[in-house]
Design a protein that fits this description.
41% of the residues lie in helices and 15% in strands. It is an alpha/beta fold. It folds into 2 domains: 219 residues, D-Maltodextrin-Binding Protein, domain 2 (3-Layer(aba) Sandwich), CATH 3.40.190; 200 residues, Periplasmic binding protein-like II (D-Maltodextrin-Binding Protein, domain 2). The protein is globular, with a radius of gyration of 21 Å. The protein starts with a strand and ends with a helix.
C-alpha cells in the first residue's frame, strides 16, 4: 500500500513569486548570533530564512533540539526574498548581523558562490555531509571552481504537467496519466501539438494552458545552458535553447492556446477555481497550491503526468557564514537538516521535493501518492524528473533575465497581442537596462 500525502502550500518558491506568511522585519537577514550560549549553558544557533521556509513548520528544529539537549535553535524570517537577499549581502560584506545559518534561494546561489565563497564555511567538509547523497547538478550549483561547497541543498522543483482529466475527456484527449505523458514525451513541440488538438474540441471558455510565460519557464528549466555560458558570459540573446523556448511559448499565445493569465495573481487563482485551463507546468511544490485554489470541486479532476523533458523550477540552500560564532555546531545542524531522512520528512509534511537523491528510496518519497490528484504516484514521477534534470549553468542575474523575458516580453505577446518579435525586443531592451548594458 502506498503512503498517501497531502501536500501543503510551500511558500519558499523558486522564483520568489510567493513569500509565505511571516511579516517583514527590521531584523537583519536572520538576526545575529547569540555568542555561543544562554544562561543555562546551551548553545543558541540562529537560522535566517525568507518566507515560510518549511524547516520550522515541519518540526525539524524541535526534533533536533530533542536529540541535542545542549542546542537551542532560533529562526527569524523576512517575508520576501527580494527584501531578505539584499540585507544578507550587506551583512556578509560587513561580517556582522548574520545568523549562524542563512537560507539562499536558487536564483541567488550563483552570485553567492562566485562572490561570497571566502566568507562562507566549506560545508562539503562538514561532519555528516556526503556529496553522494545529493543530485550531482544540485551539489554543483553551490560548489566553486576550486571545489569549495558553500551551500547544502534543501529542496528542488522537478516539474510535471498537471492536467484536468474532465477537460481532456471533453476535448477527446486521453485521460490516463501514462497515455497523457506519451502525447508529449521528449519534445515540448509535442505539448504544443496536444494544445492544438485540445483547442479543436475544447469546452467553451477553456484554454489548454494557463500562460505562455509558464510554458517558457518550464522549457528553460530543462536546458543546461540558458542565460549564461560556462565562462560566465551572458548568452541569452544568441542561445538556441532560449530561442526555442521563446518561439514555442510564443506559439502557444499566437495560436490562442493560453488563458492569457499571469501566474500568482488573483486572476490565475480564479482560473483554478473556475476550471478555465486544462494544463499547467507544475513543480512538486505547486501541487498544494493548486489544491488550495481549485478547492474541493477540483478533487480527482486534476492529475499529474511527466513533463516533455525533465525540468526544474525552484529550490534553496543553507550556508554557514564564516563570521558566525557557532560555526561548528551550525555546520552540524545544516548537515542534519539537509540529510536524506530530514528531506524526506520535509517533503512529506511540506511538499518540498528532496535535493538529496538518497531520499528517493525512502518510503515517504518512493511511496508518495497525492490523494487530491487522483492518487498520482508523485514520488515516482518527480523522482524520475529530478534525476533527469541537466546540470544547469546558473548565473548571477538569472532572475532579472527570466522576469523580464516573462513579465515584460512574453506577457505582451500573450495578453496584448504583440508579435513574437515585438515581445522579444521589449524584453531585451528591459534586460539591457536592468543590467546596464
Amino acid at each position: 500500500m502506498r503512503k498517501t500525502v497531502i501536500l501543503a502550500v510551500v511558500a519558499a518558491l523558486g522564483a520568489g513569486l510567493l513569500a509565505g506568511c511571516a511579516e517583514d522585519s527590521d531584523e537583519p537577514a536572520g538576526g545575529s548570533s547569540k555568542g555561543g550560549g544562554d544562561a543555562k549553558g546551551k548553545t543558541t544557533i540562529t537560522v535566517g530564512v525568507f518566507g515560510a521556509f518549511g524547516l520550522k513548520e515541519a518540526g525539524l528544529y524541535d526534533e533536533y533540539m530533542k536529540l541535542n539537549k545542549n542546542i537551542v535553535i532560533e529562526q527569524t524570517s523576512i517575508e520576501r526574498n527580494e527584501n531578505y537577499y539584499p540585507q544578507l549581502l550587506t551583512h556578509l560584506g560587513t561580517g556582522s548581523g548574520l545568523a549562524d545559518i542563512q537560507a539562499i534561494e536558487v536564483n541567488n546561489i550563483a552570485e553567492i558562490t562566485a562572490t561570497q565563497a571566502d566568507k562562507l564555511v566549506d560545508l562539503g567538509k562538514a561532519e555528516g555531509v556526503s556529496k553522494d547523497s545529493f543530485l550531482p547538478w544540485k551539489w554543483a550549483q553551490a560548489t566553486t571552481k576550486d571545489g569549495k561547497t558553500v551551500g547544502l541543498g534543501t529542496d528542488i522543483g522537478p516539474q510535471g504537467i498537471c492536467y484536468r482529466k474532465d477537460l481532456f475527456a471533453k476535448a477527446g484527449l486521453p485521460t490516463d496519466r501514462e497515455a497523457v505523458g506519451k502525447l508529449w514525451a521528449g519534445d515540448w513541440n509535442k505539448y504544443l501539438a496536444a494544445g492544438k488538438q485540445f483547442k479543436a474540441k475544447a469546452p467553451k471558455g477553456t484554454a489548454f494552458v494557463d500562460s505562455a510565460t509558464g510554458v517558457m519557464n518550464a522549457i528553460l528549466g530543462s536546458s543546461a545552458e540558458r542565460f549564461y555560458d560556462a565562462n560566465g558570459a551572458i548568452i541569452y540573446k544568441t542561445n538556441p535553447a532560449v530561442k526555442e523556448a521563446w518561439d514555442v511559448s510564443a506559439s502557444f499565445a499566437t495560436e490562442g492556446l493560453t488563458g492569457k493569465l499571469q501566474q500568482f495573481t488573483p486572476a490565475w487563482d480564479q482560473g483554478y477555481a473556475n476550471g478555465t485551463f486544462a494544463t499547467v507546468s507544475c513543480p512538486a511544490w505547486m501541487l498544494g497550491y493548486i489544491q488550495d485554489k481549485a478547492g474541493a470541486a477540483g478533487k480527482d479532476k486534476w492529475d499529474v503526468a511527466p513533463a516533455p523533458k525533465p525540468s526544474n523550477w525552484g529550490g534553496s540552500f543553507l550556508v554557514v557564514p564564516d563570521a558566525g560564532r557557532n560555526k561548528t555546531e551550525a555546520a552540524k545542524l545544516a548537515a542534519w537538516l539537509t540529510a536524506p531522512e530530514q528531506q524526506a520528512k520535509l517533503f512529506e509534511k511540506r511538499g518540498s521535493f528532496p535535493s538529496a537523491s538518497a531520499a528517493y528510496a525512502l518510503p515517504a518519497v518512493s511511496g508518495a501518492e497525492h490523494e487530491y490528484f487522483a492518487g498520482a504516484p508523485i514520488g515516482e514521477i518527480f523522482s524520475k524528473a529530478a534525476e533527469g534534470i541537466p546540470v544547469t549553468i546558473v548565473g548571477p542575474k538569472d532572475l532579472v533575465i527570466a522576469q523580464n523575458l516573462g513579465d515584460i516580453g512574453m506577457l505582451q505577446v500573450d495578453q496584448k497581442g504583440k508579435s513574437s518579435k515585438e515581445g522579444w525586443d521589449a524584453a531585451v531592451k528591459a534586460i539591457d537596462n536592468a543590467l546596464d548594458q
